[in-house]
From TrEMBL:
Highest rank taxon of the organism: Bacteria
Residues that span the membrane, as ranges: 60-80, 86-105, 112-129, 135-152, 164-190, 210-230, 260-289, 295-312, 342-359
Lineage of the organism: Bacteria, Candidatus Gottesmaniibacteriota
Swiss-Prot/TrEMBL keywords: Membrane, Transmembrane, Transmembrane helix
Name of the protein this chain belongs to: Glycosyltransferase RgtA/B/C/D-like domain-containing protein
Organism this protein belongs to: Candidatus Gottesmanbacteria bacterium RIFCSPLOWO2_01_FULL_42_22
Length: 490
């Protein structure tokens, strides 16, 4: 690496560090997904909870994810008993991804210019900055995809079998979230190609590769398999309801999903036409990538991922593409490295400007006040109920499933130092059903305008569960009102 490249990379790492740590406490989240990870970590460490399945997905009821993510959070939480500390570990992973994607590009025989552009995109991407500031399983995925690809190409260049095993192991860690399944077939054929280069004379490389994947699958999915075997295969029935796109909606769904991904990379209003153009360019540029087979593999991987995600007929979210970001960045970086500086620099300016607008708004909202209000509510319910015979229902204008009760339960268990709430039979979420047989029932109305509390939140709850009027309105704090009802218990 030249001295100039080293200085530029160092500058990008320092900039990326600043962007990921500036006003860190303002953006720290303790929402349901974060709180559930901490609650399970606390139960595993202090109360011996045995977790056999991974996080829930929108394909609800199917235990498709191994518990890898929760055990990684538990390991960090064990050594650093702080939610802030665990979040900072994610930040460190995000910062380390900047030099790692540079090293991956070099290992793929790409130019220093391409590698620096890739590090630039990783540094200033608002989506990847946000991934580095809070814990959630999709946020871990890009790092493990990058490092798995790095060791796969290192194994290829050195013809080293242990490095290949390490690469596959790291990729299986990335299966903590469904987005990595989009590139699983392509990664399988990449490692198969590496095996051919390492040793093509002994046992057929395809069989060796296949057996390695079966071994790692058994290793990572042993808890899931155990759970399914001992609980009468609860994932089978929900599988029948897999949300498959209808034939007429398949192409439209691809365009919608990919448009959301592109907007998360370059947050300007490009529209669905732009997504169609990018997909078309992916197809027509493959023949011109013969000089670098690594780039050709990336192109095929992106195309296969796009085709696969089109099957899934649900709302489009950027995090469903978390495994794709590093690959897309590498391909776009190579594309721009072919142009002179007077073309590259204006695009870099547009990229920084568009992402910075989102970043500026993101850090201007102080989430720490929301955490404080949640702590106050948890303290009130714990004191008022004595930690006994209570049930909570949290309702918001956008979610009426009691999903948001998790962080109150986590905070109460942390304050009480003991489990207070039943878990779902799968053990990976609290039992979200309202137990009306408890003595104290608390309704928490979040994010409703005060004028609409009575009609939209409280009355709906009373009608659904056949309660009378609440005993009292406990208090109102930060767009959250707590009502107390008398349950059936004594």
């Amino acid at each position: 690496m030249s001295r100039k490249s080293l200085w530029l990379l160092t500058l990008l790492i320092l900039t990326g560090t600043f962007l990921r740590l500036f006003k860190f406490d303002h953006t720290l989240l303790l929402e349901s997904d974060q709180a559930m990870a901490f609650l399970l970590a606390n139960r595993i460490i202090n109360f011996g909870h045995i977790l056999l399945v991974g996080p829930n997905t929108s394909f609800y009821g199917v235990n498709i994810l191994p518990p890898t993510y929760y055990y990684i959070v538990t390991l960090i939480y064990f050594f650093w008993r702080s939610e802030l500390g665990v979040s900072l570990a994610f930040t460190f992973i995000g910062i380390m991804s900047i030099p790692l994607i540079f090293l991956l590009a070099k290992e793929m025989a790409l130019s220093a210019k391409t590698a620096l552009i890739a590090a630039f995109f990783y540094t200033f991407s608002f989506t990847l900055i946000k991934y580095s500031r809070n814990i959630w399983e999709p946020h871990f995925v890009p790092f493990f995809v990058i490092i798995a690809l790095y060791f796969a190409h290192k194994a290829l260049n050195r013809k080293n079998f242990p490095l290949l095993l390490l690469s596959i192991f790291l990729f299986f860690i990335s299966l903590m979230y469904v987005s990595s399944f989009l590139i699983l077939p392509a990664f399988f054929f990449l490692t198969y190609s590496v095996l051919i280069k390492i040793d093509s004379d002994s046992t057929p490389p395809f069989l060796i590769n296949f057996y390695i994947y079966i071994l790692f699958f058994a290793l990572f999915y042993f808890p899931n398999i155990s759970f399914e075997l001992t609980n009468n295969f609860p994932s089978l029935n929900p599988m029948r309801d897999f949300p498959v796109s209808e034939s007429g909606n398949y192409l439209r769904n691809i365009n919608t999903q990919f448009s959301v991904f592109l907007h998360s990379f370059l947050p300007i209003n490009t529209g669905p036409v732009f997504a169609t153009i990018i997909i078309f360019l992916l197809f027509i540029t493959i023949p011109y990538l013969r000089k670098n087979l690594h780039l050709k593999w990336i192109s095929y991987t992106l195309i296969s991922a796009i085709l696969l995600i089109g099957i899934y007929q649900r709302d489009a979210y950027p995090h469903r593409w978390s495994a794709i970001y590093p690959l897309f960045i590498l391909l776009v970086s190579y594309f721009f490295s072919q142009f002179p500086k007077f073309v590259i620099f204006p695009f870099m300016f547009i990229f920084i400007y568009s992402n910075f607008n989102y970043y500026r708004f993101y850090i201007s909202t102080n989430k720490s006040d929301e955490i404080k209000s949640s702590v106050e509510i948890a303290e009130f319910i714990l004191k008022d109920s004595g930690g006994k015979s209570f049930s909570i229902f949290t309702d918001t204008p956008y979610n009426h499933t009691n999903y948001n009760t998790v962080y109150y339960v986590f905070l109460m268990e942390k304050l009480a130092g003991k489990p207070l709430y039943l878990l779902h039979p799968s053990g990976n979420w609290i039992d979200a059903g309202l137990n009306t047989n408890n003595r104290n029932i608390y309704l928490i109305c979040e994010d409703y305008s005060i004028n609409y509390f009575e009609t939209l939140c409280q009355n709906k709850f009373i009608m659904e569960y056949n309660f009378g009027q609440p005993q009292e309105t406990a208090f109102y704090i930060k767009k959250k009102t707590i009502y107390k009802f008398r349950g059936l218990g004594n």
